[in-house]
Amino acid sequence: MWNIEEIKKDVRSNLSDYRYNHSIRVMEEAKRLAEHYKADIEKCMLSSLTHDMCKEFTDKENEDFIKKYNLPKELLNAENKNMIHGFTASILVKEKYNFTEDMVLAIRYHTTGYPNMDILAKIVYLADKIEKGKDYPCIEEERLLAYQNIDKAIILCLKNQIKHLKEKNKLINNMAYDTLKSLEENTIN
Q1: Would you list the domain boundaries of the chain?
Q2: How is domain 4-134 classified at the CATH fold level?
Q3: Residues 51/26, Cβ–Cβ less than 8 Å
Q4: Cα atoms in the 13 Å half-sphere on the side-chain side of 89
Q5: In this predicted model, what pLDDT tens digit does every residue of 56-89 receive, in sequence order?
């Protein structure tokens, strides 16, 4: 069984300084959120640490990975470009580190979330958005809300992300809309 220090070294060997430092900050934020929401700290830390493990794969590496593991070819479509690394990382961590299914799902959908997410997936999603190295309009409001109501914080992050992508004329994966709808339907105001 791998421990967190061994996984840190392994993640480090696969990422640039920029992406590795981001992953460490996400892990630290996930730990704080896990403590706040009384979630499994180790699962939150490990999932967050490895969430971008395949972010720097080349297009060819992504194509080869998708073929090797018989993943949906639609992942190569433009609207899924930002999701590929979550899918590839989720397969890698399951195979390499024997992560549990809830950890695999949290990593797979860390860019969009998914309907009826568990607390682990919510923490990984949110930690990735609000880690201390990020700076964009509305982030302070997102950070504040993250420790008041995690569902409302994710709703705000999703709305901000969708608005930003629309302004840039970028494609938005339908899973983001599905996640937003699910959270809005299940969150008490």
Answers
A1: 4-134
A2: Hypothetical protein af1432 (1.10.3210)
A3: yes
A4: 30
A5: 999 899 999 999 999 888 888 877 888 899 999 9
pLDDT tens track for 137-152: 899 999 999 999 999 9
Nearest to 106 by CA among 27, 160, 28: 27
Q: CB of 114 within 8 A of CB of 87?
A: no
Which helix (DSSP H) or strand (DSSP E) does residue 134 occupy?
A: none
Q: CA–CA separation, 33 vs 126, rounded Å?
A: 9
Sign of the torsion formed by the C-alpha atoms of 56, 179, 140 and 143: negative
- Per-residue tokens: 45: 């830390």
Cβ–Cβ under 8 Å, residues 118 and 102:
yes
Q: How far is residue 17's CA from residue 20's CA, in Å, rounded to a whole number? A: 5
pTM of the predicted model as reported, rounded to 2 decimal places: 0.95
